[in-house]
Amino acid sequence: MVHRMVEAMSQLQEEKARLQEELAALQERLALQDSDQQATSTQLQNQVENLKEKLISQAQEVSRLRSELGGTDLEKHRDLLVVENERLRQEMRRFEAELQELRAKPVAPCVGCEHSQESAQLRDKLSQLQLEVAENKGMLSELNLEVQQKTDRLAEVELRLKDCLAEKAQEEERLSRRLRDSHETIASLRAQSPPIKYVIKTVEVESSKTKQALSESQARNQHLQEQVAMQRQVLKEMEQQLQSSHQLTAQLRAQIAMYESELERAHGQMLEEMQSLEEDKNRAIEEAFARAQVEMKAVHENLAGVRTNLLTLQPALRTLTNDYNGLKRQVRGFPLLLQEALKSVKAEIGQAIEEVNSNNQELLRKYRRELQLRKKCHNELVRLKGNIRVIARVRPVTKEDGEGPEATNAVTFDADDDSIIHLLHKGKPVSFELDKVFSPRASQQDVFQEVQALITSCIDGFNVCIFAYGQTGAGKTYTMEGTPENPGINQRALQLLFSEVQEKASDWEYTITVSAAEIYNEVLRDLLGQEPQEKLEIRLCPDGSGQLYVPGLTEFQVQSVADINKVFEFGHTNRTTEFTNLNEHSSRSHALLIVTVRGVDCSTGLRTTGKLNLVDLAGSERVGKSGAEGSRLREAQHINKSLSALGDVIAALRSRQGHVPFRNSKLTYLLQDSLSGDSKTLMVVQVSPVEKNTSETLYSLKFAERVRSVELGPGSRRAELGSWSSQEHLEWEPACQTPQPSARAHSAPGSGTTSRPGSIRRKLQPLA
Ligand code: ADP
Ligand code: MG
């Protein structure tokens, strides 16, 4: 038992030692835990302290930031801007007022000048600036809004920070309270630990209690640690928030700086523009002023001139007023005067008209009498002048005349007398006197001038014959027809008739007709007819007037030169188709152009008819009897017959014989009307100038002179012709000596006509 007791005792002892060991370990662990806890709490305290410091510094930073860039600075800036804005607005208003003034100032002269343009430009600029200012204002208000928002957000952040700090302080307090509790618990635990050797049970109990407390404290510790971690987390978040707020602040600052610089720039620009505007305005004002001064000066000068003018005008005005008053008085009496004057003028006019009427009647009577008188005078003139005139025309030497002695010139002229022609025939000089001699230099117009008067007499109802006489090749056709470029008498005569008729168109109505015929071998043919071969007969008019007419002879009415040309062409074509050798044929036939001019006097109804016969005679060269036979001889005989008949008729007419042998040839018979009575005849004797033709030339000139001399028939003149009557060789018989004119040995009678002292050239005195 004791043993057991001792055993139990030793066991208890062991147990006690173990427990004591265990207690020591526990105490040790507790102490360790204690120191650990203390370290942790100091650490925590340090951390809290740190956090507090950080919070304080953060608060300081926030306040600094607030003071630095918060509301106050921005507001200040905004205020400054508002003030600046206000100033600008005032300035603008001032400018506007000035502008208005300027606009009101320039008067009429400035309208439309360059200043209005300038001011319009300035106005545009101003409105632009105003727009910019409005824009800036908008920007400014936006900035203000932003700043306001930021300030609000900052305040919010601060509030949240404050809340956090408060929460933290509470937490801290709670933690320190709990720390204190744990210390107390630990202290109480320490105080509680009783001596184990005394009460094991107590120890046991206490040990379990301690164990429990330990676990509790451990749990508490755990909880505390969790809370600290949480706090750390919160702190971290806050730090992050702080950082982001820092960034935001920096961004805001940068933005504000940007806005400031922009504002400054805009302000500078505005200032510059305002300055330039100001300068422009000043310049414009100065220029306008200078111009106005110059204009003013001019106006002053004008005014002075006008004043002086006014002074001089005043007396004139006074006299004008007087005149006007006088005129007014006169005008008042004018209608009466006018009526009287009108009455008297009407009476005068009536009288004058009556006088004019009677004068007109008288004039008409006189005119008719004059017309009769003129015709009488003309008849008398024709009677005195003789109805036959003879002129000679010498053609120039042509290539056809050849060369050598035969082609030398044998014709000369008198320098003082244009009616004399000298011919050197076989070495002897022979002279002739005609009415006129045309040298080779004479133009177609010169010749026409000579015959012009005859042609116009046609219009007055006279019959006219113009013959071209001479040997073949002497220029008959050239004188009558001419060339297309240089027409002869035929065409010029018709042109003249047209123009004369046109001149008289107011009083007379004329019709001009043309016929063309040829006489070959005593046969008459119509050159304008459809049947040119048909032989035409000359008959007496059945009306018993004794007039002749050719039934079937074509008559064309012509009104213009173009018409004549057509007629001539037609005649020419007829002749060309009819005869193979036209040149030869035409030299052996007589070609006649018969122009009839019929007129009616519009006032009297008097009718006139004039005939113009233009005859290109056959060649006058004589063909030797021995050298010609057959048809050529027959041709020569016919030509000689008709030319002799022409000579006989002219001779009979000139010597005023009772019987004129018109019927001896077709030519004279056809021209009977135009050769007798008060008709007029012109013979153009064509002459070749060359040596080889002198015999024919001599013959032609003798014929011409004989024809001319015949007219001096009656009275004393007749006696002068006595010497000519014996000249047999000039009788109208064919000479028929040699076939070639140049080879013919025909001598001039005696010493030639010009050498004859009795030879006279009749010169007509114009009738008064
Ligand atoms: P005719 O009719 O008498 O036989 P032409 O009239 O045929 O003669 O004339 C013969 C030539 O002489 C023609 O070539 C013509 O052109 C020319 N002739 C005639 N007279 C003149 C003149 N006055 N001027 C120039 N040439 C002329
Ligand atoms: Mg001819």
UniProtKB/TrEMBL annotation:
Residues 387-710 form the Kinesin motor domain. Residues 716-768 are annotated as: Disordered. Keywords: ATP-binding, Coiled coil, Cytoplasm, Cytoskeleton, Microtubule, Motor protein, Nucleotide-binding. Its main location: cytoplasm. Residues 2-174, 221-287, 342-373 form a coiled coil. The keyword DNA-binding does not apply. It comes from the Eukaryota. ATP binds at G470, Q471, T472, G473, A474, G475, K476, T477. Residues 759-768 have a biased composition (Basic residues). It is found in: Cytoplasm, Cytoskeleton. SMART domains: KISc (SM00129). Pfam families: Kinesin. Belongs to the TRAFAC class myosin-kinesin ATPase superfamily. Kinesin family. This is Kinesin-like protein.
